[in-house]
């Protein structure tokens, strides 16, 4: 069996930063540190950090007064920030800078007097965070069909922003529909969909042309990983989202000579290796990596974690990093 690995695949800069924030917080403050929501949507990442002393909670009322609390890469609403302050928590914000950029952009549009439309998936933590970062009403649009149902006049001043991990193609269709519906509309086009999401989608589209079966390593609650699997399926290739090698079924590969493997932005490379090992257990394999874009994006850690410890302690009264 031939295996072709997607390039790029796996961890993005926002995920590397978020995991590093938890690791460094454990080093500086000792266990436990509390993380609100899965730091990124991956059980293996979460279990690994838990084994080092991180405690994962869904709500801040589970965090003791004064403890270190880390917000996940997906971002939080302003009410969560205020709640953390009221509880005297020492907050480290692992929200991806590209998610924060969308928050800032949304607030700017609202300050211009526009009604904000958020293109995204209801209930996803990034969507809840973005809605909660914008003062006033945010109208959520999840599909092209929903655009026609919006209860806004055609000449209403509107603007849109998007979730960072959407399908580029679906989002393009929704944006086109919004432009047909409204006469006074501004927005970032598909540029809010982050570089990592765009690059992994472009790579998997290319990879799908070369393989009989596609495996996407990632979690079922990972938006960006699901989108990769959908692209494989849309191109007519049987595509499976798997957390690791233990989930493979031999009959998926009965007629397959070439298997493509990609990984979502929150999926560790160790899990890709685990999947390759599981395929090797079915028979001899030869693995290569497709040619593709090299990513060099890196995000700075919060100042609170890079300052020498004495300085960090002196400024511990500041709730958020700059
Ligand atoms: O479900 P998402 O794709 O938004 O998040 P995940 O899988 O944790 O990926 C990394 C964090 C992405 C934030 O934009
Ligand atoms: Fe940031 Fe994009 Fe990674 Fe999300 S997927 S954490 S927006 S770089």
The CATH top-level class label of the largest domain: Alpha Beta
Largest beta sheet, briefly?
A: 5 strands, parallel
Helix content: 25-40%
Q: What count of domains describes the coordinates?
A: 3
The geometry reads as flat
The CATH topology of the largest domain comes to: Cobalt-precorrin-4 Transmethylase, domain 1
Strand content: 15-25%
- N-to-C CA distance: 50 Å
Rg, Cα atoms, Å: 21 Å
* Sequence stretches where pLDDT stays below 50 over 5 or more residues: 317-322
The overall strand count is 13
Structural class category: alpha/beta
Main sheet: which strands, in order across? 11-10-12-1-13
> What does the oligomeric state look like here?
single chain
Corresponding CATH architecture of the largest domain:
3-Layer(aba) Sandwich
Order of helices and strands: EHEHEEHEHEHEHEHEHEHEEHEHH
**CATH superfamily grouping of the largest domain:** 4-hydroxy-3-methylbut-2-enyl diphosphate reductase, catalytic domain
Tell me the number of helical segments per DSSP (H or I, 4 or more residues long).
12
């Amino acid at each position: 069996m031939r295996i072709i690995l997607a390039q790029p695949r796996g961890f993005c800069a926002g995920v590397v930063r978020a995991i590093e924030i938890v690791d460094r917080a454990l080093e500086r403050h000792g266990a436990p540190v509390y993380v609100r929501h899965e730091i990124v949507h991956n059980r293996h990442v979460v279990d690994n950090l838990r084994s080092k002393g991180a405690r994962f909670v869904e709500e801040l009322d589970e965090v003791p007064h004064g403890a270190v609390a880390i917000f996940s890469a997906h971002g939080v609403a302003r009410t969560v920030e205020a709640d953390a302050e009221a509880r005297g928590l020492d907050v480290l914000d692992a929200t991806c800078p590209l998610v924060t950029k969308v928050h800032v952009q949304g607030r700017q549009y609202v300050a211009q007097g526009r009604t904000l439309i958020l293109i995204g998936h209801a209930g996803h933590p990034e969507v809840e965070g973005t809605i909660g970062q914008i003062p006033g009403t945010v109208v959520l649009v999840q599909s092209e069909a929903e655009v026609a149902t919006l209860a806004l006049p055609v000449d209403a001043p509107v603007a849109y922003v998007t979730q960072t991990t959407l399908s580029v193609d679906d989002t393009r269709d929704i944006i086109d529909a919004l432009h047909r519906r409204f006469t006074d509309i501004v927005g970032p086009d598909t540029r809010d969909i982050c570089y990592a999401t765009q690059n992994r989608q472009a790579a998997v589209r290319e990879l799908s042309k070369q393989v009989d079966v596609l495996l996407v390593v990632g979690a079922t609650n990972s938006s960006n990983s699901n989108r990769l699997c959908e692209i494989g399926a849309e191109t007519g290739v049987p595509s499976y989202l798997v957390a690791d090698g233990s989930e493979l079924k031999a009959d998926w590969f009965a007629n397959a000579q070439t298997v493509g493997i990609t990984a979502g932005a929150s999926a560790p490379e160790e899990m890709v290796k685990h999947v390759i090992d599981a395929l090797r257990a079915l028979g001899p394999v030869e693995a290569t990596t497709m040619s593709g874009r090299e990513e060099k994006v890196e995000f700075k850690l919060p100042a609170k974690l890079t300052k020498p410890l004495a300085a960090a302690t002196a400024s511990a009264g500041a709730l958020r990093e700059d």
